[in-house]
Amino acid sequence: MQNSSRLQNVRYDLRGPLQHIAKQMEAEGHRILRMNLGDPAPFGLEAPESIVVDMIHHLRGAQGYSDSKGIFSARTAISQYYQTRGLMQVGVEDIFVGNGVSELISMTLQGFLESGDQVLIPSPDYPLWTASVMLSGGEAVHYACDEQNHWWPDMADVEAKITDRTRAIVIINPNNPTGAVYPRRVLEQFADLARRYDLVLFSDEIYEKILYEDAVHIHTASVAEDIPVLTFSGLSKAYRMPGYRAGWVAVTGPRSATAAYRESLELLASLRLCPNVPAQHAIQTSLGGYQSIDDLVKPGGRLREQRDLACRLLNGIPGVSCVPAAGAMYLFPRLDPELYPVANDEQFVINLLQEQKILVSHGTAFHWPTPDHFRFVILPAETDIRDAVSRIATFLASYRTKVHKTVGSAPADGAPAATQAE
Fold it and tell me: What is the model's pTM?
């Protein structure tokens, strides 16, 4: 049996060779400090007890299939949530519940794209978007986000990338991996481009409740009521239950423009029979009442304090600069190419893993064009963050020394020859 040709250029490096090396090292008895996981559960950030209890309460009634779009009470809760946020046009029938946002990304793209259609995706991106576009027969075209301007999209570059084959723009807000949160004027610029070029907006808002300081999340659909917009969110991050696989997408915009597409989504939803039924019973409880994420992101809250600590420590390493995240659970630090002339950032983080027993994600895994960034997760406890940054600093100090000794020779595979041989 051979691989499908559709997989030829599909990558998901977040669970690629690095993971295999780390697992092998753990099997050999090494303790790996994992600063690459976007899963709150291993770090003691668990789901609120009230949500778990409510789901358990409904288990006996959740043994059969549900409506293919999701149970009515869950979709009603989602619809009401958006209405309280100003999206009055969102009704129960506009909601599709899925086995996490990941399933819905694939499903919505499969129902939308023709072979060769182009979709604009941010760089850096969450790589599932690029992979799903390609698996749906489309072409992913990456637009630049500007590190010098809060990691907001470079709107001139976005427009320059639009061609007669462009069908949609993906917006990830708050962004993974940069933590950027986009202001209203940026979203309005996206909406203006969609109007002028007849495009659809796919807005990934899974981190919408994880915000720091004065950051405010604005739904893309709220500035684009006259445009087809797909809004994605779920329970994985703010409610710390990624394993429950409970996500949703809301379809908004003129009914006349989205009617046929909605039929396609209903067909695809029916083909998978239904989403995970027990987890759907967690949605209504999650969206109503007290929001426990607020305590984690406010001053003194665990996520806020860990973000501040990680950013301060990373910026204290010579040649490392880090823009503070306004939202989400990640930092995307930059390595000064003058001090760290990395040619292959995947090999660079493999060397870091092997030498210092710490696992981070390399920047090109997020379709960042140059090998000079890595993603650092802020979920681990403060002691682990201090330990992780200390190990990175030790590794980079050794790297600088070896670069100095090998001046004049080109680095290969992410490190100078001396480092690569170790």
Answer: 0.91
